[in-house]
What does this fold into?
Amino acid sequence: MTVKFNNRDPVYVQVIRHFKEKIAKGYFEPGQEIPSRRELANQLKINPNTAQRAYKEMGEQGLIFTEGNMPSCITKDEAVLKSVREELIIEAVDLFLGSIKSIDVPLSEVLELVKKKHDAESGEAEESK
Amino acid sequence: MKKYWKTILISLIIVTTIGSYYIQQAMASKKDVSFKIETTNGDKGEIDNLILQASYQNGGNIHHWLQISKDGSTNQISRTFFRDLVEAHEPLMFQKYIQEYRNFMRGKVLNPGQYFEDEDRLIYTTFQSNGRNKGLGNLFTLQIDTLDKKTNDSSSFEINMPDQVRYDWINERDIYIENGKIKILATSYLNGEEELHIYTVDENKKELEHDLILAKLESEERAQTSINILNDYNKVQNENYILYMVEKYKYLDDGERETIPSKMYLYNYLNNEVKELTIPAELKPYMKYMILHGTDIFIPVHSAIGLELKRYNIEKNQWEEHLSFKYPSIANDEEAPFLQITDDKLYLVSRVSDGHFFFIGDVRTGESLYEGKIINENKENLNADYSLMIEQIYNNMN
Amino acid sequence: MKNFFKLLNFEVNRFFKLYLTLIGLIIVSQFIGAIVESKVYMDRTDQEMYKNQLSMSQYIERHGVFSFNYVFESEWFLLPIFFSIAMLMIYVFFIWYRDWFGKNTFIYRLLMLPTERITIYFAKLTTIMFLVLGLVTLQILLIPIEIQIVNSIIPTDFQSNFSFYHFSSFEIWGWMYPNTFTEFILIYGVGLIFVAVLFTAILIERSYGLKGILFAIVYGMVSFGVFFAPILLNELSSGYFYSLEVFLMLLVMSFIVLGSAIWIANHLLKYKIRV
Amino acid sequence: MIEVKNVMKKYGRKQVLKGLSFTAEKGEITCLIGINGVGKTTIMKAIMALTPINSGEILIDGEKIRKESFEKVTFIPDTITMLPQMKICDAFTFMADFYKNWDPLRAEELLQFFKLDPTERIANLSKGNMAKVNMILGLALNVDYLLMDEPFSGIDIFSREQIAEVFTSHLIEDRGVIITTHEISDIEHLIDRAVIIDNGEVLKEFSVEEVREKEGKSVVDVMREVYRR
It folds into this structure.
């Protein structure tokens, strides 16, 4: 996996976000093993210390857990996983709302469009399969 | 280890080679040229205290110095570096001085002509030039150092030579000291001119009292004239007379020089008189071999049957009948025979076919005291045409 | 100590190729010399004998037998030696400057070795002496061979016997192969001091750049002065001291000069050296 | 910890370091940033006692540099420090000869990682490969501190990436690294601390993550600020 980082947000924050997305998308099953922080650093071409920091944070947020000196795993706690998903969705929606506020259109109309677009894309997606 | 083989190998080679080279050197010098004296006749005791300071040439022109005594010879090739450092190569008399009067001898020129010794004093005199202004000659100061042999304390004083005493250099030949008067025999050179002087110094007044010119050579005549002093060069004790000749010679076409009739003079320290010696015609050819000894003048004449010593007595100023020493002919032209007369003894060393003939005779009675041979012990180290030169024979006793 | 030997070995290996060529040069040139010179001599002899109808003995009467000086004083023999000396002199400087100005600045590595830096100095110093003594040894080994070569060409009647202690009667040999081991040690000791002073001078230059050149020269002259002070002193005092005393003074001075050279070098390498 | 305490240095008349100070922690990558000729390299040489300083002091874990220190801190200059005629393996034997803590296995590993042939003569190496070998000479030593002078300058992009990768690997982990660069962007994410230097002085010394977190600025942003001042 590779990630394009921006230089302004702390790298460890970006790493955590990256993990959340993966979880939300379901690439990571609950309880799945994740790469050691060294592997991670190597894969993402980041400083091991940063990877360490990211894992620490995620540990505190309960996203991952480590038993003894076993490799860390994604949490099995449904609640947390669910919250991650919601968090991302809400984030996205907030962003969306924020941008359409500027051009005040009635919500119904917008939703129409959204629905249409979404179906079309997913349709293409179907075909492409 | 094995990646160091080069270095190790080379070091081994270096050490072994250089090591063995010097071991070989040591060996070589062990079985080095060495001479010994073989008594053929007379009293062995004669050579007990003798030391012959000599040098030999073995082809080439390097002089190897060595000393020969009854116990054989010191070989000089094996001389260690340090033996050189302790003036081992200097004439024995000076080695003795340096041992006994180390401090007094510091920085002194080792030229017997500048020394005087009697039982209680050793005196050294030297002319020091004030620098070199060629042509006009240098001004000189005469320095006189005196060592009291008993108390071993030394004193010194200087005399500035008067202005007319200007020379390029002054070469001292002999010192004579009699009741407070120091007489210095010296040859002085200026622009090719040569003069023989007697400088008389008053020890107590510390001043130059008298400057006598015995002989003078103009620059042009020096080409075929020279002043020879026939006294024993190494004698530092008083001798009442100075025997010198103004030798005239001409060069033969083969480059050899031939003495032509020349004048012989005798100077008397006691009364500052110079008188010319008249030499019988038949002796003239030998005059330049004359030897002054005490009140006698000897003229050696080598002959088939040995050596004839013509004798002239100065006091009686007359010729007395000669002494003759008989021994097998030693006529030999490669090496002129060495002759020395000290303490009424005649020492003669002359080349013979199988070595060198060594003879000691009594010059009062004319009898032979000792006959022997100086031979090279190990022939293989010496070319057949080696030559041995005796510089001086010392008697350890005095 | 271990590191010293490693470095020594390393430095030796660095020069080794050049060293071999040098040795080869000497051997070839001197052997040719031995052959050529003896041939020339024989031709001359034959002509001479033929021209004036001389028998061997008569000829030897007049001209003497073959002398090894013909060989040992010929260019064939001497030039390669002088060349080698020159090479080694140059290498005294090269052995340092190559590490700075070489294609890769190796001095970085040397100075970063976990060992006292003065060890590098000692290693290089020993290397030079090592190379010198190597050639000295080579010459000792070659002489007998060359004598063999000559004697194989010159008929026995013309041969003169040659032993090693006559060897030291030629001037340069007198210096390169003194008569006694003591003198050998002393002479090459002086050589060592000379190289040490040069090394230190080089390090001064390396440490202070352009200014350094000036310092280096001054330092060199001072060392030289100190070293020869006793002799000078003795000259001025018109031989006041006996040779033994002068020698001892020289000995002391040499130790002072060598000691200070090493001390300065050590200080520079520790605190002042620049890469 | 390597402490550089107000070090001053002159070259002739030119003052290259004007009382410069910073510290580099073990286990962190500290980057000396600054345009060429501000004395970055000089500092590194000064730390290694490869050039004298006029005043100030430099301590490695609290001590001045000693011969033992060279088993603890090493310097990778921007040129290779082995003889051209040497083979790579020769160079390694040399290192093994003199350094107690040379790790031949790691050297091997790195050779394979960089895909280098140990029998290659150093003279014949490409610039990139030479830089890599040079890296190995430093990295295969079990030292606590690594000083690297412009490891990325003037070499091809792939070599850069390979070398960059090394920084994220166990080879660097737990060691203190000081690295100089005049081109930060390649390694912006690799470093922990940045020390911005301009004509012989430290303009700013900071932890990059902190700055991103608190001020939301990239290293380049910070550089812009400090230079503008």
Notes: The mean pLDDT of chain C is 89. Residues 178-275 of chain C form one domain.
